[in-house]
Amino acid sequence: MSEVLGAQHPDAAAADGARRGTAIGSPGPLRPIFSGSYQKLWLLLLFGWLVSYADRTVTGPVVAWMIHDKGGFIGDSAHPAALGGLIGSMFFTGYMLTQYAGGRLGDRFGHREMLVLSLLWAGVLTLVSGLATGLVVFVVARVLTGLGEGVFYSNDRVLVITHTPPRRRTIGLGVAVSGLSIGLTVAIVATPYMIDWGTSAGFGARAWSMPLFLFGTFSLLVGVATWLFFRARGDRPLRLGAPLLRLIGYSVPCAAAITVLYLVSDKAGWTAWETAIGSGVLALVMIGFVVRDLKRTGKAETLLTKDLWLLYIAFIAVMWNLWFFSFWSVEIVAETAHSSLTSAALTAAFNAGAGIIGFPVGGWLADRRVRQGKGRKSLAIICAVAHTLLAVAFGVSLAVGHPSLLLLGLILFTSGLFFNALQPIVHGILGDQVPDADRGAVFGVFNLIAEIGAVASPVVSGVLRDSTGSWAPGVFTAAGIMAVSVPLYALVRERIPGAART
Known about the structure:
mainly alpha, Growth Hormone, Chain: A, about 80% helix, globular, MFS, transmembrane transporter activity, Major facilitator superfamily MFS_1
């Protein structure tokens, strides 16, 4: 891994010097690596989050359509929910394994370059997913999509923090990541209509591929727009060849390992539980590899502190809840309220859409606290507690039977406000825990560990549904995991950026 990632590239080191006003090995100042408006940067990254999350979220509604119409790769399965959840978990296994690599490659080759590569990669592989003719090919395409999308997160967070004034950093993080909610909402609401369009266009049993073709094309367009944006607002051209080769060199063995896991589990007749454990073992191996690498390079004292471990582990609950509700919310509402897939998608979208408000408001409140010289973790605790209680209420409404769409939509929206506000607050706390030069790596480690929740959540929840006949146990499990994160946030010793207080 060290050979794949390597040390910081001279150009990236020069860029670090440029951001501080002087060049390495040069007596005079350089123009900044990014010279545009930071508000425009937020907007660009918002679109990046939008297409990135639409590409990954589309799998859930597509799986729900296959289950309801008994078509595609899943319709004739004896345990369709478990199989659908397993596909989601395979995607997030890939997504998880490139988190740390993405941050390190960004620190070396440039964060702009990694963002552009991530968007173009995801667009191409989403199109390939739509062309898949069998379950194995579909799984491999989704795994490769996840590997490419995994490098977006850490580089996006670093660009926002680096190029936004400290007093507005957290709202910048919130505005950019609100694209996540827009992408979730678009994918959840639009996918059933896109599938209907595919049916009308003569796709027949392959109507499920239409949303993958459309979202993949949109991702490619946003990737090209991102490349043009950075090319016009930087002091050096974007060089994509070297980081692309490194990313391919890293992704191919990861994709091979995940695919072998899937094929072995299928051949041996493993249950979804056993396959999920296999994904967990891959995650633990990667985490162990990263920890060893950080100790070898002398970064452990910076990136593996007690406070950072608390944040890393606590955020597993966020990823678990995010991908429980994002992956299964359409199916939960359709099954519990006995509604059509379209009505269920519109109701489930209340949860995803709440982030359009929750993300920037959470960032704004956190920045306000920082300007007052106060910590942000109290806000994180409030949001985590509120979401836990509302998730329990959602589970109770499912357990008592036949809840109305209005009640489900109201709970999903309210819980979504607190849940989405929590995320930029934690991102801001995390970014201020380390020096500027280590931010790509810290966000990579952070999401590598947190994505354990995303890997486990879809398949565990699907298995619980198939074994109990109800979605309520999965909801209560998600709420309980979020409750565990509350004391972890309370133990964090937060650092407040001094420049933001003035």
